[in-house]
Amino acid sequence: MPKRPRDEADFNGSEGNSEANKRRNFDPAIETNEQALALLLNQAENLIEHLRKLQKASSSGVSVAVVSQGQLLQDLQSASTVILPAVRLLAKDGVNTHQVKDVARDGSSRENISGAALLQTPTSGTAGSQSTQPRASQVSSVSAPPVPSPLLLTPFQAENIASSLPPLPPILDQTLETAVFTHAGMAKIQKSQLSYDRLEWLGDAYSELISSTLLFSTFGRASPGRLSQLRELLICNSNLGKYAAKYGLMQRVHLSEEFKNSKDAKKIPGDVFEAYVAAVILSDPENGLRRAGEWLKALYSMTIKDQIRELSRKPEMRHIVEMDREQKVPIEEEVPPKQRLSTLIAVQGVKLRYEDDKGGPKKDKYNNRLNVFTVNLYLDGWGEKNKWLGKGTDLNKKVAGQKAAQMALDNASLMKKYRDKKLAFLAARDEEGAENDNVDSE
User: Fold this and answer.
1) Is 1 contained in some domain?
2) In this structure, are residues 75 and 151 in contact, taking their beta carbons and an 8 Å threshold?
3) Which residues form the RNase III domain (predicted)?
């Protein structure tokens, strides 16, 4: 059942407040009709293309229910999200930026709180005093962190793999930014409550959930174990630390000398990156989650580009059976390569041998904490002895054997040679059998 839109009661227990709802949904980046029209013109070609696809699907007899489960819906949702601020403004369903700031100044709307309030205890002061009022520049975080939707981001596509490091999204709240780059040890020295510890905890959860939904929607036929292996590649501390190094985040961290040479120092870059993710999201209640998600998606695509490209050669592996509510897309059971190879060239007396390669790689090239298996395939028969046909490497030994068989099948000329020999053998055997039948009948 679809979730109802969050209204004012979700935040403060009161009944619907339409003006507050408008303020919360307004995007300050779109302030005038001219800006709104410019945004629509900029996105017109992309939106029209998706609408034409929808029209074509409908005219071809594809039901709305099927479209609602496919890539087209996700593309339309993404395009709609981009133009939504302009549509709201043109529909007079919003307020301008100055009104939003005025609300923050006079304290009439308390659904948003500052980054400081999220990270440290309130300072002393009387209710309504200047010391307890959030500054307008601080009113940038919702009272509860937003929850990602599985449809927030479209699946990975080979053509959309980032070719260079994506821009680092800014943190729109100074308090949150200060916390991101302050180690707990330094905060203690400075007698401050601001450090990245809590943000790291939240950023870890966001990174795991965003990566999980991306992988689930991209690798539709992958097992839970395989999805976990891919996710580990993306969000393990060492990989996040590499991201942090590429952006130079550690150069901005306030770290005491005591911790610079500690045994936990290697973990700090990854922790800072997770904190940065959380801060980007919290500092921008309207678009922070989407901005962080698109940024992480681009980074992740560079890390698992080989797996994404491999998937593009097997589009049937994208189908998500759990999202196919009408089960109109049949899942055909593919005959395993080992079985196809045996059917193609093997007969009694011809043997295919799968043996472990003792000299093969022991660790996964993407994650050296994972063991891999390498299997060689040999043929005994058709005039050959110990003939090498192929090799496969995988985290799963059975899959490695299947890959070795597939490598042999991909050698078309060699397969034709042995297939012809098998056909000649079968023809001679059938002819001999027919002659024996004739002798018996006489």
Assistant:
1) no
2) no
3) 173-285
Instruction: Indicate whether this model's pTM tops 0.90.
Output: no
Among the candidates 111, 127, 150, a domain finishes at 111
Res 115: pLDDT: 58
Q: Supply angle C-alpha 206, 290, 116, rounded to 5.
A: 65
Q: Nearest 5°: phi and psi at 391?
A: -145, 145
In which domain, by residue range, is 81 found? 18-111
Q: Please, which residues bridge with residue 235 across strands?
A: none
Whether 297 shows a pLDDT value over 90: the answer reads: yes
Per the structure block, which two tokens stand in for 132? Answer: 């307890």
- Chain centroid to Cα 179, Å, comes to 27
Nearest residue to 97 (alpha-carbon basis) of 139, 37, 50: 139
In whole angstroms, give the CA distance from residue 95 to residue 151: 28
Domain match, 296 and 360 both: no
**Measured in whole angstroms, how far is the alpha carbon of residue 346 from the centre of its chain?**
42
Neighbours of 425 (CB within 10 A): 14
Spell out the residues 6+ positions from residue 361 whose beta carbon is closer than 8 angstroms to its own: 372, 374, 393
CA angle 314, 317, 319 (to 5 degrees): 130
* Residue 60: pLDDT band with limits 50, 70, 90: low
Query: What is the dihedral angle through the alpha carbons of 351, 352, 358, 360, rounded to the nearest 10 degrees?
Result: 160
| Residue 378, token pair as written in the block | 């040999």
Count of domains observed in the chain: 3
What number is the average pLDDT over the span 255-283?
88
Tell me if 388 sits within 8 A of 378, measured CB to CB: yes
Does the residue 6 lie in any domain?
no
Contact between 288 and 280 (Cβ < 8 Å) = yes
For residue 42, give both structure tokens: 């900029």
User: What is the C-alpha R_g of the chain?
Assistant: 30
pLDDT digits (tens, 9 = 90+) for 12-39: 333 334 443 333 343 445 778 877 787 8
- Closest among 288, 287, 301, 400 to 354, alpha carbons compared: 400
